[in-house]
Amino acid sequence: MRTIFLKNFFLIPLWFFNIFIKKRPPYRGHIFDQQSQALISLQPSIDLTTVPDNEISDIRKLITENRIKNKLSLNTKNPVMKFDHFVGIDKNVLLREYNPDSINTDKVVLFFHGGGYVLNSIETHDDTVSYMAEKLKARFFSLEYRLSPENKYPDSLDDALFAYEWLEKKGYTSDKISVCGDSAGAHLAASLVHKLIADNSNRLPDSQLLIYPMCDPSCKSESYDDLAEGYLLTKKTMIWFWEKFGKSEENIKDQAFNLLKLDTDLAMPNTIIITAGFDPLCDDGEKYAYLLHEKGDKVKQLHYPNMFHGFASATRIKAAQIAVDDFLSEYKKIL
């Protein structure tokens, strides 16, 4: 019944949800989007924290298949051409290029998918990246970085560095590169910048779009506690993600691992940070935006109070599409 209903879910008029879906209590003065609430209630429930390491790859495949089958992102209006490249020392890291039918900028976007460093792939975010590329009229490159727990920190960061250097070798100077990602992918984008800064590099990307980023492995903010469960992503799962990703306690001191440990006087790239009101990660994203603001960097936080963690890949939800189109219009201004 769940599968049948999900297939017809987006044919249901919005007024139906507003009338027949019981509203959750407001949080910080805002009501959770009713269509989003209904969709989340239809998602399969699984406690990832009970999955042993040797079964994670199988669960990952099932989740990927489910995301591809139950398509939540809108299609592009025109075809987006895609080309696969292989980068890294052994040429075994996939980097997918997206070319919309019209390109209006000489900058390119290096994109990293979310999934807590444990789940998802370029395939789960293929429609999302296509949508963004067409909206921005920009060339994207999406990276299939190595996942945890099979590959611990900093393996994914090494893959990001390889991809960044590959773009440079292809003739894209750092001022022509923007980095972008959602959740763990946003963390990886910022982590790449932090790593370049720590290495005293003068090759920082021109800008970055960080969509509800993972920031602090302590998971102790107010929004983590207030929104610990019931909004798709849970505090328990986030703690588990960080545990699978990290290699040792020393990682906590590393500013490329714990973004809130940033300690530099160097200017950061022009930054846009996206937060969602019903997202446990909300307060961490705001703290990171404030950290950049305090040190004098160009940073803009765009907050969508009725949205949830993951909305950027669910543009078939009307309120999510409006939010995504809004932050992409702001991103377009700095590309």
Key structural traits:
single chain; 335 residues; alpha/beta; Rossmann fold; 8-stranded mixed beta sheet; globular
Oligomer classification: single chain
Strands across the major sheet, in which order?
1-2-4-3-5-6-7-8
Under the CATH scheme, which architecture would be assigned? 3-Layer(aba) Sandwich
Output mean pLDDT: 95
What is the CATH T-level topology?
Rossmann fold
Largest sheet: 8 strands, mixed
- Cα distance spanning the termini: 44 Å
Detail the poorly predicted runs. none
Q: What's the total helix number? A: 11
- How many strands in all? 8
Order of helices and strands: HHHHEEEHEHEHEHHEHEH
The share of residues in helices is 25-40%
Q: What percent of residues are in strands?
A: 15-25%
Number of separate structural domains: 1
CATH-assigned homologous superfamily: Alpha/Beta hydrolase fold, catalytic domain
Query: Quick one: CATH class?
Result: Alpha Beta
User: Helices and strands: which structural class?
Assistant: alpha/beta
**What is the global morphology?**
globular
Query: Roughly how many Å is the radius of gyration?
Result: 19 Å
Describe the structure.
The protein is of the alpha/beta class and 335 residues long. 36% of the residues lie in helices and 16% in strands. Strands 1-2-4-3-5-6-7-8 form an 8-stranded mixed β-sheet, sandwiched between helices.
